[in-house]
Design goal:
The chain has 100 residues and is an alpha+beta fold. The protein has 2 domains: 36 residues, Irregular (Rhinovirus 14, subunit 4); 51 residues. Helix content is 51%, strand content 18%. It has 2 helices and 3 strands, in the order E-E-E-H-H. A 3-stranded mixed beta sheet has the order 2-1-3, with no helix packed on it. A hairpin with a 4-residue loop joins strand 1 and strand 2. The longest helix is centred in the last third of the chain and has 47 residues. The N and C termini lie far apart (102 Å).
Amino acid sequence: MKKDIHPKYYPSAKIKCACGAVLETGSTQEHIEVEICSNCHPFFTGDKKVVDTAGRVERFKQLRAKSDKKKEDAKKAKATKKVTKKNEKSKKKDLKSLKK
């Protein structure tokens, strides 16, 4: 096996969190700084963030209503287009019958 190809291993590396907690573990870096750890993470502490679910639901309903309105408008436009095409065809037939 080749010598000096592996990084140096520190068996008692210090991990410092933004909350002030210091943990020891083994690592290839001697000092590590993190923003969140098991002492301050909401999953481990039991603190829950209040989520504005009512706002989310209302936003979803508004988006759904806009989408439904667009679909209805598209259907109306398509129906009107069909009616106008039918009218044009009948007018052409009337003109042909008059020419004869």
